Amino acid sequence: xxxxxxxxxxxxxxxxLWLVExxxxxxxxxxxxxxxxxxxxxxxxxxxxxxxxxxxxxxxxREDYLAPYRxxxxxxxxxxxxxxxxxxxxxxxxxxxPILQTAIDAKIAEIGRTIDLVNAGRIDEAIDIVRADTxxxxxxxxxxxxxxxxxxxxxxxRVIVNDQLQAADNxxxxxxxxxxxxxxxxxxxxxxxxxxxxELMRSRExxxxxxxxLEERVNERTRDLIRANQEIQxxxxxxxxxxxxxxxxxxxxxxxxxxxxxxxESYVLADGTTLSxxxxxxxxxxxxxxxxEAIGFIRSSTRKMDQLINAILKISxxxxxxxxxxxxxxxxxxxxxxxxxxxxVSAVDGEIDVNxxxxxxxSDRISLDQILGNLFxxxxxxxxxxxPLRISARIMPQGRGIVRLDIxxxxxxxxxxxxxxxxxxxxxxxxxxxQGEGIGLAHVRSLIRNLGGDISVASxxxxxxxxxxxxPTDLRKITRGNDI
Length: 484
Prior knowledge:
Strand content: 5-15%
Radius of gyration: 33 Å
Number of helices: 13
Structural class: alpha+beta
Largest sheet: 5 strands, mixed
Number of strands: 7
Distance between the termini: 33 Å
Helix content: over 70%
């Protein structure tokens, strides 16, 4: 029975590896398709810039309006090559490439001919070429081909996403099956052990003791899993909420951007028609105020998204870092953390009290440095103005291989409703008069839980806070059987 269970587990491991490899292939193809979409948009945008420069020059005969056209000529060849390279060996694209290349060449030639005629003083001839709609036909052909490329790409992306979801669903069921198989194997092993030692009272008592210990460990692990699942759900909500806000802003200002283009389009495509003062004023207002404002807000939103993503990556990298168990003197670490902010505390006539008894634990020094450094930095950052800052620390053994550190300050304090909220990612409490993204305490909680400990806070608004850290005295016992 055990052999059958092990064979079943091996089969499930193989299936899991196959599903993971399949998912990796989907990811690589997704990356290729995104590069194709980027190349398509680059070519289309460049051609539109060239056309914009042409129309502006025909209308004004000012050299500065040719800047987009000249820049487009300089980059178009490279972007065309990138598009060709992206779709090579893909017949669904390559069949239309000659048509696209011919249309692009013809459009560039048409733009260049009109500009040359204007330079030669033959403006009417240049305008006649534009009015003949030849360039419009070429541009429409280019847009149709690129739109078809993009539709094909988007259709394939949708298929890949569906396939990835299916693969993830299959992997989940394989994992559930593996868990059931593990439970069955463990249950079978316990049954055999109970059968063979049942005749010996002393052995039975030992087995009962082991079972009780195992049950307690299972309960502990179950509580850990429940807590981890709750944190994952909170994390998923926070991330989707905070990342969605900049996207909503971007979508809103893109709509404003599009609306602002209409008076400019009317101005640029007037084709000699006399415009009213309102139309001219609207076009200039869009160029001077509306478009720069929309672009500024879009840039701000994308910068916010970049900061949030970098914060998520930082916590993810720390969670994957291999822990190094070594002897660490907590008193020494507290002294180092205090020294790092001593000059700031002294500047407000404050003091730091880390006069504790030496206490050695076996843990990861880097993680503990980051935890204490964050807490001391927060104490300085959120001190009460006009009050000398006081920071103190205590070390208290808790029994059963656990030690507790208390870090106390007399700063602003935290409202009761925010005591748990401050440990959530991207969440901050109180007045937002300090720089930060709200990841410091979330990072601290992640680090200390990786060490097998936990953190909580007791605080009174306006009087100060005490952060309670619990930590196993020997990390190796927590990570036994795993790589540290």
